[in-house]
Amino acid sequence: MPAEWESGSHESPDDSSNSPQTLELLCHLDNTAHGNTACVLWEPMGDGKRLISLADNHVLLWDLQESSTKSAIASSATLEGKGQLKFTSGKWSPHHNCTQLVTANDTAIRGWDLRSMSQIYCIENAHGQLVRDLDFNPNKQYYLASCGDDCKVKFWDVRNIGEPVKTLEEHSHWVWSVRYNHSHDQLVLTGSSDSRVILSNMVSISSEPFGHLVDEDDLSDAEDNGQEEKCKEPLQDSIIATYEEHEDSVYAVEWSSADPWLFASLSYDGRLVINRVPRALKYRILL
Questions:
Q1: What pLDDT, in 10s, does the model give residues 147-175?
Q2: What is the Cα gyration radius of the chain?
Q3: I want to staple 191 with a disulfide (CB 3.0 to 4.6 A). Which of 47, 87, 177, 257 is the partner?
Q4: pLDDT above 80 for 10
Q5: What are phi and psi of 175, to 5 degrees?
Q6: CA nearest 221: which of 232, 229, 213?
Q7: Per-residue pLDDT band at 7 (split at 50, 70, 90)
Q8: What tens digit of pLDDT does each residue of 41-53 get?
Q9: Taking a C-beta distance cutoff of 8 angstroms, is the pair 252, 177 a contact?
Q10: CB contact at 8 A, 106 and 122
Q11: In this model, does residue 119 exceed pLDDT 90?
Q12: pTM for the whole structure
């Protein structure tokens, strides 16, 4: 934490009319006894009083108290095994009342039950090399996406972890980030060290593989009017677009929380690029 943040904001005497907002330090997460922090995860739902930090081989569940400037560790778990195991990334599941967490260490993916702080599944050798990122499908509670240094993006059903349900091999270097669209889970973003952002349409494993479901009342009305039901073939999985505006490794991709058709990507050289889902695909999904 920079020292100037702790002492309050510094206003310029020449520009008092455009003074910056004061940043209020709420609390410190003191996990120095547990090692270096790999990531911090806010609870997907709730009052914002719980978060998780992954430090070396420790999972720490924090309780942020309103009446105190200190945060307390509510519970914790330790990853046991041979060698110096360290978490590289994690994701708090928005499903199951936010009681599950998934983590990555080396080439393995592990699921955790936060109520007992114990492992509930482990995908050994999920990727051929280091696992970089994870994301849960927001609409299908058992579906998970992962990416790694083997240039692959994999989709898993955690009820059957023997094999991924789908694998993408469109990138030519390490894949650093993978994100499901919050509203339309067939839209998946990936960012890679090959300087590219790829937008994929993974409709076959989405929550609506056949498009929007037909309402039973509409179907009965059509039958009463003598209209024949037209069989709608499912859309095929495909690469929608490849974005090459970056000139360096793309380390992060994110969907907008306000506009489901807007997304951003960030590369090592500091370039932030904002793009939109192609209009033709947008209306095909909506209509």
A1: 999 999 999 999 999 999 999 999 999 99
A2: 22
A3: 177
A4: no
A5: -100, 115
A6: 229
A7: very low
A8: 999 987 878 999 9
A9: yes
A10: no
A11: yes
A12: 0.82
43, 45, 47, 51: CA torsion to nearest 10:
0
Smallest CA-to-CA distance from 136 within 38, 53, 41 is with: 41
**Range of lowest pLDDT (11-25, 32-46, 175-189):** 11-25
- CB environment 13-47: b (16+ within 10 A), e (fewer): eeeeeeeeeeeeeeeebebeebeebbbebebeeee
What tokens appear for 270 in the block?
A: 């500091």
* Pair of tokens at residue 195: 């300087």
Numbers of helices and strands, H then E, in the chain: 3, 19
CB 257 within 8 A of CB 182: yes
User: Residue 17 pLDDT > 90, yes or no?
Assistant: no
Q: What secondary structure does DSSP assign to 117-158, as a single string?
A: TEEEEEETTSSSS-EEEEEE-SS-TTEEEEEETTS-EEEEET
Cα–Cα distance measured from residue 150 to residue 130, given in angstroms and rounded to the nearest whole number: 7
The answer to whether the CB of 117 falls within 8 A of the CB of 79 is no
